[in-house]
Amino acid sequence: MGGKMMRLFTIGFTKKKTREFFGLLSDSGATALVDIRLRNRSQLAGFRKRDDLEFFLSEICDMHYRQELLLTPTEQALRDYQHGAVPREQYAAEYVRLLEGRQVEAVLSPADFNEAVLLCSEASPDRCHRRLAAEYLASAWGDTGIVHLL
Fold first, then answer.
1. Cα 30 from Cα 61, distance rounded (Å)
2. What's the chain's Rg over C-alpha atoms?
3. 139 partner at 20 to 30 Å CA-CA among 79, 113, 114, 145?
4. Which InterPro entries does this chain map to (predicted)?
5. What span, in angstroms and rounded, lies between the C-alpha atoms of 33 and 80?
6. Tell me, what's the pLDDT at 104?
7. Local confidence pLDDT in tens for the 150 residues of the chain
8. How far apart are CA 81 and CA 129, in angstroms?
């Protein structure tokens, strides 16, 4: 990265109107959106469905879109957490162990995440795996600032 601090953003779309969502992305200066949702094709996602989102990001924000499955939680872990079968702390610990097991810091390239936004659905980063993923990558790669777009 040439000695310059890397910036990694996060955003969730729940409770954000379309104008606010794309405004935050445009104003961030980020160049790419990395979708780390397990389910990104649901009809309930509206304009945030994978193919629609890719189009809008390009047209509105001049941003690239990609999905990164290595940063998604497992179906079972997400279901257990969403249905209250496991507490938040256990879900978070299991997710971090999943990232460790997948060796995401070695498989993924920091250059591909500089000025990128990690996308998930939760409104608040403190309740979402995107914060855990960002913190994990920042810790592993070092010299990374995390900005949560709220």
1. 9
2. 15
3. 79
4. DUF488 (IPR007438)
5. 27
6. 98
7. 556 899 999 999 889 999 999 999 999 999 999 999 987 766 555 566 778 899 999 999 999 999 999 999 999 999 999 899 999 999 999 999 999 999 999 999 999 999 999 999 899 999 899 999 999 999 999 999 999 999
8. 11
User: Does residue 50 contact residue 35 with C-beta atoms inside 8 Å?
Assistant: yes
DSSP string, 17-46: -HHHHHHHHHHHT--EEEE--S----GGGG
Amino acid in the structure at residue 142: G
Helix axis angle for 129-141 and 88-102, nearest 10°, is 40
The backbone region for 142, taken as left when phi is positive above 0, alpha when psi lies in -120 to 50, beta otherwise, is left
Q: Phi and psi of 109, rounded to 5°?
A: -105, 130
